[in-house]
Design goal:
The chain is of the alpha+beta class. The protein has two domains: about 230 residues, Rossmann fold; about 120 residues, Beta Barrel (OB fold (Dihydrolipoamide Acetyltransferase, E2P)). The protein has nine helices and 20 strands. A hairpin with a 2-residue loop joins strand 4 and strand 5. Helix 2 crosses helix 3 and helix 2 packs parallel to helix 4. It is elongated, with a radius of gyration of 25 Å.
Length: about 375
Protein backbone atom coordinates (compact mmCIF):
# COMPACT_ATOMS: atom_id res chain seq x y z
CA UNK A 1 0.00 0.00 0.00
CA UNK A 2 1.27 3.46 -0.88
CA UNK A 3 2.29 5.84 1.88
CA UNK A 4 2.90 9.59 1.82
CA UNK A 5 6.69 9.27 1.47
CA UNK A 6 7.90 10.47 -1.94
CA UNK A 7 10.09 7.87 -3.64
CA UNK A 8 10.35 10.18 -6.69
CA UNK A 9 10.48 13.97 -6.48
CA UNK A 10 10.38 15.85 -9.79
CA UNK A 11 11.25 19.50 -9.19
CA UNK A 12 10.72 22.24 -11.81
CA UNK A 13 11.87 19.93 -14.61
CA UNK A 14 12.23 21.33 -18.12
CA UNK A 15 13.36 19.44 -21.23
CA UNK A 16 14.19 21.26 -24.46
CA UNK A 17 15.20 19.72 -27.77
CA UNK A 18 17.07 22.39 -29.69
CA UNK A 19 16.01 26.02 -29.63
CA UNK A 20 12.35 25.60 -30.55
CA UNK A 21 10.92 22.44 -28.94
CA UNK A 22 10.14 22.30 -25.21
CA UNK A 23 8.85 18.80 -24.52
CA UNK A 24 8.48 19.15 -20.73
CA UNK A 25 7.58 22.52 -19.21
CA UNK A 26 8.35 23.15 -15.55
CA UNK A 27 6.89 19.93 -14.13
CA UNK A 28 6.84 19.53 -10.34
CA UNK A 29 5.48 16.23 -9.08
CA UNK A 30 5.92 13.78 -6.20
CA UNK A 31 5.30 10.05 -6.68
CA UNK A 32 4.72 8.12 -3.48
CA UNK A 33 6.40 5.04 -2.16
CA UNK A 34 4.50 1.89 -3.16
CA UNK A 35 1.91 3.50 -5.42
CA UNK A 36 0.86 2.68 -8.97
CA UNK A 37 1.20 6.02 -10.75
CA UNK A 38 0.14 6.85 -14.32
CA UNK A 39 1.36 9.58 -16.67
CA UNK A 40 -1.56 10.05 -19.05
CA UNK A 41 -1.93 12.24 -22.10
CA UNK A 42 -2.14 12.38 -25.89
CA UNK A 43 0.80 11.65 -28.18
CA UNK A 44 3.45 14.34 -27.97
CA UNK A 45 2.40 15.64 -24.55
CA UNK A 46 5.80 14.94 -22.93
CA UNK A 47 4.93 11.89 -20.83
CA UNK A 48 7.44 9.50 -22.42
CA UNK A 49 10.17 12.15 -22.31
CA UNK A 50 9.51 12.57 -18.59
CA UNK A 51 9.70 8.80 -18.07
CA UNK A 52 12.98 8.62 -19.99
CA UNK A 53 14.40 11.37 -17.79
CA UNK A 54 13.50 9.28 -14.73
CA UNK A 55 15.33 6.35 -16.30
CA UNK A 56 18.35 8.49 -17.21
CA UNK A 57 17.97 8.05 -20.97
CA UNK A 58 17.35 11.79 -21.42
CA UNK A 59 19.14 14.62 -19.65
CA UNK A 60 17.34 17.48 -17.92
CA UNK A 61 17.57 20.99 -19.32
CA UNK A 62 16.48 22.49 -16.00
CA UNK A 63 15.32 21.23 -12.62
CA UNK A 64 16.06 18.19 -10.48
CA UNK A 65 14.90 14.60 -10.13
CA UNK A 66 15.37 12.85 -6.80
CA UNK A 67 14.81 9.10 -6.43
CA UNK A 68 14.74 7.78 -2.87
CA UNK A 69 16.21 11.10 -1.73
CA UNK A 70 19.22 11.03 -4.09
CA UNK A 71 19.72 13.62 -6.84
CA UNK A 72 19.95 11.76 -10.16
CA UNK A 73 21.83 14.54 -11.96
CA UNK A 74 25.10 12.62 -12.36
CA UNK A 75 23.81 9.08 -11.91
CA UNK A 76 24.10 6.85 -14.99
CA UNK A 77 21.01 4.86 -16.11
CA UNK A 78 22.49 1.50 -15.02
CA UNK A 79 23.26 2.91 -11.54
CA UNK A 80 19.74 4.21 -10.85
CA UNK A 81 17.38 2.29 -8.52
CA UNK A 82 14.89 1.88 -11.38
CA UNK A 83 14.25 -0.54 -14.21
CA UNK A 84 12.21 -0.06 -17.36
CA UNK A 85 9.82 -2.20 -19.38
CA UNK A 86 9.65 -0.97 -22.96
CA UNK A 87 6.70 -0.94 -25.35
CA UNK A 88 8.41 -3.54 -27.57
CA UNK A 89 9.40 -5.75 -24.55
CA UNK A 90 12.92 -6.09 -26.10
CA UNK A 91 13.38 -9.74 -25.10
CA UNK A 92 16.34 -11.56 -26.66
CA UNK A 93 14.99 -14.00 -29.29
CA UNK A 94 17.96 -16.41 -29.08
CA UNK A 95 17.67 -16.87 -25.30
CA UNK A 96 15.23 -18.95 -23.29
CA UNK A 97 12.82 -17.31 -20.86
CA UNK A 98 15.11 -18.22 -17.98
CA UNK A 99 18.19 -16.83 -19.74
CA UNK A 100 16.38 -13.60 -20.61
CA UNK A 101 15.41 -13.04 -16.99
CA UNK A 102 18.89 -13.91 -15.71
CA UNK A 103 20.76 -11.72 -18.21
CA UNK A 104 20.92 -8.50 -16.18
CA UNK A 105 22.11 -10.30 -13.06
CA UNK A 106 24.85 -12.11 -15.02
CA UNK A 107 26.09 -8.84 -16.51
CA UNK A 108 26.29 -7.28 -13.04
CA UNK A 109 28.33 -10.25 -11.70
CA UNK A 110 25.75 -11.69 -9.32
CA UNK A 111 26.80 -15.16 -8.03
CA UNK A 112 25.07 -18.07 -9.80
CA UNK A 113 23.22 -19.45 -6.74
CA UNK A 114 21.72 -15.99 -6.16
CA UNK A 115 20.83 -15.68 -9.87
CA UNK A 116 19.05 -19.06 -9.85
CA UNK A 117 17.09 -18.16 -6.72
CA UNK A 118 15.99 -14.73 -7.93
CA UNK A 119 15.10 -15.96 -11.43
CA UNK A 120 12.87 -18.66 -9.93
CA UNK A 121 11.17 -16.09 -7.69
CA UNK A 122 10.61 -13.69 -10.58
CA UNK A 123 9.19 -16.37 -12.89
CA UNK A 124 6.84 -17.45 -10.09
CA UNK A 125 5.67 -13.85 -9.67
CA UNK A 126 4.68 -13.63 -13.34
CA UNK A 127 3.40 -17.25 -13.53
CA UNK A 128 5.97 -18.45 -16.05
CA UNK A 129 7.73 -21.19 -14.04
CA UNK A 130 6.61 -23.90 -16.48
CA UNK A 131 7.90 -21.94 -19.50
CA UNK A 132 11.46 -21.27 -18.30
CA UNK A 133 13.00 -23.31 -21.14
CA UNK A 134 10.98 -21.81 -24.00
CA UNK A 135 12.21 -19.26 -26.54
CA UNK A 136 10.27 -16.00 -27.08
CA UNK A 137 8.91 -17.18 -30.45
CA UNK A 138 7.13 -19.97 -28.59
CA UNK A 139 5.26 -17.49 -26.40
CA UNK A 140 2.14 -15.36 -26.84
CA UNK A 141 2.28 -11.57 -26.67
CA UNK A 142 1.07 -11.59 -23.09
CA UNK A 143 3.69 -14.18 -22.10
CA UNK A 144 6.49 -12.16 -23.74
CA UNK A 145 5.33 -9.16 -21.78
CA UNK A 146 5.57 -11.21 -18.56
CA UNK A 147 9.14 -12.14 -19.49
CA UNK A 148 10.00 -8.46 -19.81
CA UNK A 149 8.39 -7.78 -16.43
CA UNK A 150 10.28 -10.64 -14.76
CA UNK A 151 13.56 -9.43 -16.26
CA UNK A 152 12.93 -5.96 -14.86
CA UNK A 153 11.81 -7.16 -11.42
CA UNK A 154 14.63 -9.68 -10.93
CA UNK A 155 17.05 -6.80 -10.27
CA UNK A 156 14.82 -5.68 -7.38
CA UNK A 157 14.49 -2.01 -8.39
CA UNK A 158 12.86 0.53 -6.10
CA UNK A 159 10.81 1.84 -9.04
CA UNK A 160 9.53 0.05 -12.15
CA UNK A 161 8.98 2.28 -15.20
CA UNK A 162 6.55 1.05 -17.86
CA UNK A 163 6.38 2.70 -21.28
CA UNK A 164 3.04 1.83 -22.94
CA UNK A 165 3.59 -1.84 -21.94
CA UNK A 166 0.18 -3.10 -23.12
CA UNK A 167 -0.22 -1.24 -26.40
CA UNK A 168 0.84 -4.22 -28.56
CA UNK A 169 -1.82 -6.53 -27.09
CA UNK A 170 -5.36 -7.07 -28.36
CA UNK A 171 -8.21 -5.51 -26.39
CA UNK A 172 -9.24 -8.58 -24.39
CA UNK A 173 -5.67 -9.56 -23.45
CA UNK A 174 -4.88 -5.95 -22.60
CA UNK A 175 -7.75 -5.88 -20.11
CA UNK A 176 -6.56 -9.14 -18.56
CA UNK A 177 -2.99 -7.86 -18.28
CA UNK A 178 -4.18 -4.65 -16.62
CA UNK A 179 -5.61 -6.72 -13.78
CA UNK A 180 -2.46 -8.86 -13.61
CA UNK A 181 -0.19 -5.81 -13.48
CA UNK A 182 -2.15 -4.33 -10.57
CA UNK A 183 -1.97 -7.64 -8.68
CA UNK A 184 1.75 -7.89 -9.43
CA UNK A 185 2.42 -4.36 -8.20
CA UNK A 186 0.56 -4.98 -4.95
CA UNK A 187 2.40 -8.28 -4.38
CA UNK A 188 5.92 -6.86 -4.88
CA UNK A 189 5.08 -3.58 -3.13
CA UNK A 190 7.33 -1.32 -5.21
CA UNK A 191 6.37 1.85 -7.05
CA UNK A 192 5.14 1.41 -10.63
CA UNK A 193 5.10 4.41 -13.00
CA UNK A 194 3.26 3.74 -16.25
CA UNK A 195 3.03 5.94 -19.35
CA UNK A 196 -0.16 5.53 -21.37
CA UNK A 197 -2.45 7.44 -23.73
CA UNK A 198 -5.35 5.10 -22.87
CA UNK A 199 -7.71 6.73 -20.37
CA UNK A 200 -9.39 3.45 -19.39
CA UNK A 201 -6.01 1.86 -18.75
CA UNK A 202 -4.93 4.68 -16.43
CA UNK A 203 -8.26 4.86 -14.59
CA UNK A 204 -8.48 1.11 -14.02
CA UNK A 205 -4.87 0.56 -12.86
CA UNK A 206 -3.45 3.62 -11.14
CA UNK A 207 -3.76 4.86 -7.57
CA UNK A 208 -3.17 8.37 -8.93
CA UNK A 209 -3.00 9.83 -12.43
CA UNK A 210 -1.16 12.87 -13.78
CA UNK A 211 -2.84 14.24 -16.92
CA UNK A 212 -0.35 15.95 -19.25
CA UNK A 213 -0.80 18.15 -22.29
CA UNK A 214 1.75 20.18 -24.25
CA UNK A 215 4.50 19.41 -21.76
CA UNK A 216 2.58 20.43 -18.64
CA UNK A 217 0.87 18.51 -15.85
CA UNK A 218 -2.69 19.81 -15.73
CA UNK A 219 -4.08 17.76 -12.86
CA UNK A 220 -2.96 15.00 -10.48
CA UNK A 221 -5.68 13.06 -8.69
CA UNK A 222 -7.18 9.68 -7.92
CA UNK A 223 -9.04 8.20 -10.93
CA UNK A 224 -12.52 8.83 -9.50
CA UNK A 225 -11.69 12.48 -8.73
CA UNK A 226 -10.27 13.01 -12.20
CA UNK A 227 -13.42 11.63 -13.77
CA UNK A 228 -15.98 13.32 -11.53
CA UNK A 229 -14.14 16.58 -10.75
CA UNK A 230 -11.87 17.59 -13.65
CA UNK A 231 -10.37 21.04 -13.19
CA UNK A 232 -10.16 22.11 -16.84
CA UNK A 233 -11.92 21.60 -20.16
CA UNK A 234 -9.00 19.58 -21.48
CA UNK A 235 -9.08 17.09 -18.58
CA UNK A 236 -12.87 16.90 -18.69
CA UNK A 237 -12.87 16.13 -22.40
CA UNK A 238 -9.82 13.83 -22.38
CA UNK A 239 -10.97 11.62 -19.49
CA UNK A 240 -13.93 9.66 -20.80
CA UNK A 241 -16.70 11.36 -22.78
CA UNK A 242 -18.19 14.74 -21.92
CA UNK A 243 -20.85 17.18 -23.12
CA UNK A 244 -19.27 20.64 -23.07
CA UNK A 245 -21.09 23.97 -23.52
CA UNK A 246 -20.10 27.61 -23.24
CA UNK A 247 -21.97 29.55 -20.59
CA UNK A 248 -21.94 33.09 -19.23
CA UNK A 249 -21.78 33.84 -15.51
CA UNK A 250 -24.92 35.83 -14.67
CA UNK A 251 -24.63 36.05 -10.89
CA UNK A 252 -24.49 34.18 -7.58
CA UNK A 253 -27.43 32.54 -5.82
CA UNK A 254 -28.07 29.97 -3.05
CA UNK A 255 -24.41 28.97 -2.56
CA UNK A 256 -24.14 28.41 -6.27
CA UNK A 257 -23.56 30.22 -9.51
CA UNK A 258 -26.08 31.46 -12.09
CA UNK A 259 -25.17 30.47 -15.64
CA UNK A 260 -26.81 31.36 -18.93
CA UNK A 261 -26.23 29.16 -22.00
CA UNK A 262 -27.24 31.48 -24.83
CA UNK A 263 -28.08 28.75 -27.35
CA UNK A 264 -30.70 27.15 -25.08
CA UNK A 265 -31.59 30.06 -22.78
CA UNK A 266 -35.14 30.23 -24.13
CA UNK A 267 -35.78 26.57 -23.28
CA UNK A 268 -34.04 26.20 -19.92
CA UNK A 269 -33.58 29.77 -18.69
CA UNK A 270 -30.76 30.56 -16.28
CA UNK A 271 -29.12 27.59 -14.55
CA UNK A 272 -28.37 27.70 -10.83
CA UNK A 273 -25.48 25.29 -10.34
CA UNK A 274 -23.56 24.24 -7.21
CA UNK A 275 -20.16 25.94 -7.26
CA UNK A 276 -17.49 26.92 -4.75
CA UNK A 277 -15.21 29.78 -5.60
CA UNK A 278 -15.50 32.77 -7.90
CA UNK A 279 -16.01 32.90 -11.64
CA UNK A 280 -16.86 35.50 -14.22
CA UNK A 281 -17.26 35.87 -17.96
CA UNK A 282 -17.36 32.76 -20.12
CA UNK A 283 -17.11 29.37 -18.40
CA UNK A 284 -17.41 25.77 -19.51
CA UNK A 285 -20.49 23.76 -18.56
CA UNK A 286 -19.91 20.01 -18.57
CA UNK A 287 -22.11 16.95 -18.07
CA UNK A 288 -21.17 13.29 -18.50
CA UNK A 289 -23.30 11.43 -21.12
CA UNK A 290 -24.28 8.69 -18.65
CA UNK A 291 -25.74 11.32 -16.31
CA UNK A 292 -28.14 12.64 -18.97
CA UNK A 293 -31.70 11.29 -19.09
CA UNK A 294 -33.96 10.84 -22.13
CA UNK A 295 -37.78 10.93 -22.02
CA UNK A 296 -40.58 10.82 -24.57
CA UNK A 297 -42.68 13.17 -22.42
CA UNK A 298 -41.55 16.34 -20.66
CA UNK A 299 -40.15 15.51 -17.16
CA UNK A 300 -41.50 18.44 -15.08
CA UNK A 301 -39.52 17.40 -11.99
CA UNK A 302 -36.21 17.97 -13.80
CA UNK A 303 -35.04 21.62 -13.49
CA UNK A 304 -32.70 21.34 -16.49
CA UNK A 305 -34.57 20.06 -19.54
CA UNK A 306 -34.80 20.80 -23.26
CA UNK A 307 -36.01 19.17 -26.44
CA UNK A 308 -33.63 17.79 -29.06
CA UNK A 309 -33.78 15.62 -32.17
CA UNK A 310 -31.99 12.28 -32.41
CA UNK A 311 -29.23 12.54 -35.00
CA UNK A 312 -27.74 9.07 -34.59
CA UNK A 313 -27.93 5.97 -32.41
CA UNK A 314 -24.71 3.94 -32.20
CA UNK A 315 -24.78 0.43 -30.72
CA UNK A 316 -21.74 -0.78 -28.73
CA UNK A 317 -23.07 -3.99 -27.22
CA UNK A 318 -23.21 -3.15 -23.53
CA UNK A 319 -24.44 0.37 -24.23
CA UNK A 320 -25.81 2.61 -26.96
CA UNK A 321 -24.69 6.19 -27.60
CA UNK A 322 -27.48 8.54 -28.62
CA UNK A 323 -26.46 11.78 -30.35
CA UNK A 324 -28.96 14.65 -30.35
CA UNK A 325 -29.15 18.26 -31.52
CA UNK A 326 -31.49 21.05 -30.45
CA UNK A 327 -33.18 23.52 -32.80
CA UNK A 328 -30.54 26.09 -31.83
CA UNK A 329 -27.64 23.77 -32.71
CA UNK A 330 -26.66 22.52 -29.26
CA UNK A 331 -25.27 18.97 -29.56
CA UNK A 332 -25.70 16.49 -26.73
CA UNK A 333 -24.68 12.84 -26.38
CA UNK A 334 -26.29 10.33 -24.03
CA UNK A 335 -25.02 6.89 -22.99
CA UNK A 336 -27.72 4.29 -22.38
CA UNK A 337 -26.92 0.94 -20.79
CA UNK A 338 -28.34 -2.00 -22.74
CA UNK A 339 -29.73 -3.95 -19.81
CA UNK A 340 -32.02 -5.98 -22.07
CA UNK A 341 -31.90 -6.96 -25.73
CA UNK A 342 -34.39 -4.31 -26.84
CA UNK A 343 -33.19 -1.46 -24.59
CA UNK A 344 -32.35 0.90 -27.44
CA UNK A 345 -35.03 -0.25 -29.86
CA UNK A 346 -37.49 2.49 -28.82
CA UNK A 347 -35.18 5.33 -29.88
CA UNK A 348 -34.59 5.94 -33.57
CA UNK A 349 -33.15 8.67 -35.74
CA UNK A 350 -35.25 11.88 -35.98
CA UNK A 351 -37.15 11.20 -32.74
CA UNK A 352 -37.71 14.40 -30.77
CA UNK A 353 -37.02 13.68 -27.09
CA UNK A 354 -36.68 15.50 -23.81
CA UNK A 355 -33.10 15.70 -22.56
CA UNK A 356 -32.56 16.45 -18.86
CA UNK A 357 -29.99 16.24 -16.07
CA UNK A 358 -29.56 17.29 -12.47
CA UNK A 359 -27.81 20.54 -11.45
CA UNK A 360 -25.62 18.64 -8.99
CA UNK A 361 -24.24 16.50 -11.84
CA UNK A 362 -23.13 19.60 -13.77
CA UNK A 363 -19.55 20.87 -13.70
CA UNK A 364 -18.49 24.50 -14.04
CA UNK A 365 -15.03 24.80 -15.61
CA UNK A 366 -13.15 28.09 -15.50
CA UNK A 367 -10.09 26.97 -17.50
Amino acid sequence: MADDTAIISIQNVVKRFGAYVTAVKNVTLDIRQGEFFALLGPSGCGKTTLLRMLAGFESLTEGRILIDGEDMDRVEPNKRPVNMVFQSYAVFPHMTVEQNVAYGLKVSGTPKPEIDKRVRESLTLVQLESMAGRKPDQLSGGERQRVALARALVKQPKVLLLDEPLSALDAKLREQMQIELVHLQKSVGITFVIVTHDQNEALSMADRVAVMNQGRVLQVAQPSDLYEYPKSRFVADFIGKMNLFDGQVAGVKDRGIVIRIDAVAEQIGDLVLPYKGSAQGTVGIAIRPEKVRLDQEEPPEQPIRLQARVVEVVYYGNESHVFLESDTGVKISVNMKNISRNTHAGIIKDDVLWVSWRPEDTLVLTS
